[in-house]
Amino acid sequence: MKNIRKMKQITMRLKLQWKIAIAVLIAGVACGGVLIFANADSSVSLSLTPAQSSVAQGSTSTVIHANLSGTDDEYYDVSNPANNGIASPVRLEWTISDEDYDVVKFVNPSSGGDAYLQSVSGTTNPTVYGNRAGAATITAAYHSKKFSDTGAVVYDNVLATSTAAVYVPINVNVERKRGDQTLEEADLMKEGDLITITANTCESNKLFIETSNDSSGEVKSDGVVELYYRDSSKVILKVIGGGSTIVTARTADGSGINSLTYTFTVRSEVKFKENVTNAQGHFITHLQSNPSVKYMVLSDKDYEEFSYEDLPSNVVYPTKSNVIYRTADTNIATVAAGTVCGAHAGITTVSAGLTTLDVGGNESWFTRDTVNIVVPFKKMGNEVSNMNVGDQLQLSTSAIASEVTWSTSDNTVLQVDSSTGLVKAVGAGTATIYATRVQDELYTVYGLPYQLVYKITVIDGFGLSTVSTSVNIGSSIDITALVTNNPTKDQITYTVTNQPDAAGVVPTYDLIEVSQSDDGRVFTVTGVASGIVHLTVSQNINGVIKSETCVIYVTTPVGEVTINPSSLTIDRGSTGTVQLLFNPSGPTNANVLWSSSDTSVATVEGDSFTATIKGVSGGNATITVITEDGLKVATCDVYVREPVTGIVLNATTVESTMAIGQYQLVATVLPAGNGVNRNVTWSSSNESVCKVDENGLVTYVAPGYCTIVCKTEDGAFLATCNFIISIPVETIKLDYTDEIMSKGDRLRITAEVLPLTATNRTVSWESSNTNVCIVDSNGLVEAVGTGSATILCKSLDGGVTAMCNIYVKQPVTSIVLNTTDITVRKGQVFWLNATCLPENADNKIVSWESRDTDVCTVESDGKVTATGAGTTSIICTNVDTGLTAYCVVTVTQPVTGIKLNSDYQELWVGAKYAIIPSIEPIDAENKNVTYFSSDTSVATVDEYGVVTALKGGNCVIEVTTEECHLTAACTIVVKEYVSSITLSETDKFMNVGATGRLIATVGTTTATNRNVIWSSSDNSICYVDANGNLSAESVGNAVITATAADGSGVTASCIVRVVNPVTRIEIVPSTVRLLVGDSQKVTANVYPENATIKDVTWTSSNESIATVDEDGEIFALSTGKVKITATSQDGNNIKGICWVYVTPVVNITSLKINSKDIYMLTGRSRKLSVIVRPAVNTDSYKWYSSDTGIVTVDDNGVITTVGPGTADVYVISDGAGVESTCTVHSLAISRSSITLEQYDKYTLDVIGTTSKITWRSSNPRVCTVSSSGEVIGRKAGTATITAVVNDKTLSCVVRVTSIR
Fold this sequence. Notes:
The protein has 2 helices and 123 strands. By secondary structure, the chain is mainly β. The longest helix is centred in the N-terminal third of the chain and has 29 residues, at 2-30.
């Protein structure tokens, strides 16, 4: 039997070698004895489906399938020779990319499933075993092998490869521990807690951990957790700080692959740390009286601004730990990413922690710690300890301005605004300013001061309003003596002293006139003559003489200024001088500033008398002078001339004809640039030949010769252009225009030149191709080569031309075929194309002939048909020259392979799919195929390849060629969808920690896969297992979905609301007493605080006595006792009770306010009291104001004056409408501050009263006030005007300025 098999193999090889030898022999003959050897042709197509798949750890999968087709000339099947040369699964070899094959392995087919290999062969569906989590690449390679007689492999060539990705999903277990205590996923973690993460990874593909803050895999810079221990499949993280982070556990190769990745969130307790000092030296501590209250005191250093400083806590990286920082009062302090900054004195609570949202979208703290931030009451701004009389100083503190009351120890030295802290120095001495704040917790709890003390010394002095000034002759100025008391005119004296002039001479005449005001403080100085004078003013204060001197400069002013001349023309490079004239002449300040509008044209240098102007380049510029005194302006227009250096024309000689008619000459005057006179004149030497206009346009008059002259206006430079005007040739006629010649022929061509009167009738001859024709100067043409050429005749005067086309005939010299050797299959048709060379050959007609019509036939147009296997020659012959060309044609076997339009297809029941085969080669004669279904109960296929899906299942459709019996297969998977899923509940409440179950009813009993996949939109809220068992994990809403496992997309959902359950409801108040007809709203306090659903349902036990609405408002209808109940809506049916007692109404019969008339300052408050009869009643009363723009009143009878005027305050009972009245007079001064110039007047008034007003001034030296309130400014300074009326004092600050 072995010998028979061996003989068959030898026979097959001999047949193949014999065919190759014959082909080599024929090719050798056709190629002139050169032998060409070619290997047999093999072609294999290989693909794997699906491209990606998953296999669970410990499970096996046969889903990967190799789709194989094509030919392998080295494959021999002794048992079935029909398969010889066809690609066979026997040659498939499977390997795994995983070097250690830790991720997946192949199941040994002969082991029964309990032995594993790294490679297998000889199958299209290997069994893959999932070993450890990770990704692996499965490679299938087709090996074409040749064996020796002993069975050894002597030839192994990979013809095709294909790959598919396989994933073993990661299974992760997370365990949280605090010492020996195991924590739940929802539990808040603390520093030191350990998180153990284990997974089904391996040494070659280790467990990789990254966080939302650290993607390095080392977990060193996360801030919430850090790496504590690791090996290939286990990692322990340690909680090191507060905040939250997202932990991702994956395989080392699982980045971006969902099945190889698992994520969870770690939330750690946030705590402020005590006794840890920050960079500013501040730290958190606790109250001795209440250790649970932590606090930190910010900077108490006076005059030091608050800045952001760290809040010591266990949060390592505040900016990326997701910790929320909030302050209860931003007016006290602000927070930003773990830092705090003081704003105003006081105490605020800063919270830090993690937040969460409940089902209603309400935010609550998941973890939180608080610390009281204490902002001290201290001095702010700049420190000042000395002031001069008349000075003002604005003091400020760290408190909100409205919280501080200011006072002074001595009103005669310092005055202070009690609400603003504006301090005014009014007299010499030392006084203390107090800033007082309410004695709140800053003082009572934290022991910080509530009062600040400023000690200020005020210095008295004397001076003048200015110590140096100037005045023009004839003008006047005021100089004011600055005094601190109220001296008489006799106590203020002055002296005038003339100072030496420039020559050192002291004028003996008056330079100024001085007049002193009635109060002696203002000195009016009038300029008389120019010069310098000292005005010394002295004051005798109790025998002490104080003096101040003012230096006065009397000046002669500038009236107007002019430049002579007002315009100037200069050449480039030269200069010109102008004179500056003042009116009046000789002003005291003759300083001026010269400038040029364009320094690139002209520059200027000058003084107070003359200026030199230099021309820089041609153009225009304006020279400007401005006086320092009075800013008077004068100008001079300057024109800088650029001399002409030459002229050029755009042409020097023009030869033209009368037919052209005109020519434009263009003159360029040199040099280029501005300031050049570019005017020129034009003239003609002979106007009977040419005329020229003023723009250089030359007009032809008659044939001839003339010269055009151009002359510059500046410099008389000349330029000329010579014109020659002639009669042109108009046409040329040839006696031959299109001729055919033979090589060596000659032809004379004669030219007729018109008109006969043309000035120059000479012509030239030339050939466009001297390789074809040459021509001499007399028009004699000689054919020297084959091809086409054009003989061109051209007039010498203007380029008029005429042409004659010559064609010299060309024979065929060679024939080139588009191919000389071709291999085709039986029945194939192709065309041979013959190219006759050269390209310009005249007769290119050819004939075709086949030496063996049994192999090929050929038609007259070169169409060749392969009629049988073999080799022959196709001969092409030129009918003109007899030249030939040959093409060797080899006809071979037709069909070599088959491919399908798809090797895998999924169909639903009733669907159809057409399988389309592609036969190789494309021009094979016999393309007939047959179709076969491996299971006609699943799917059938007709003779046209149309597959019809009948029921769920798998089958293979095989397609076989009629010729050579080559096969290809397509796997058909028929599916039947689930039609519907119904859940036992669609809306469900569950308490945290509770369990439950949902039952899914699946429609269509014939569905392929009736399994459902349970999923939760948030497993951290509600977890569902594979059987629909529910576990409520944490508060929130989760959607539990049952999805058909067959991929139909049919789903059903149930909304599960996991809540912290209500355990108690307390109604506040628990007892309500109402009058018939009244109503009151009660509040239901739901416990615990973190109960998720706090909504309740309100009911009344007797609605004839009282009803209650959905907001808890109770309406009393009749007397009696009734129970109001609030019931929880979270499904736990917890109740709270309130008892309501309804009694009859007793109205008020009399009301009386304790005062009838009240006088108050605007902005003040006072409480009114009222006597009520009967004292025991069920009635109530309310307060009203007749004008809330004057006085307001609150529900407790506290009245506040908000504007000046008189208004009535009423109290009226609600029941019977009994009332009482009080008249309130709100007093306000018409202005709280005014500014006056000296001696200006202003009348003040007190609004809100008609009583007598007493007026006073705090400093009559600054301003006085009459009994009618008229204020007169006396000297520069500040004083306070007070008005006393009805024992109330009002004030107005008056600021007096010097006369301007």
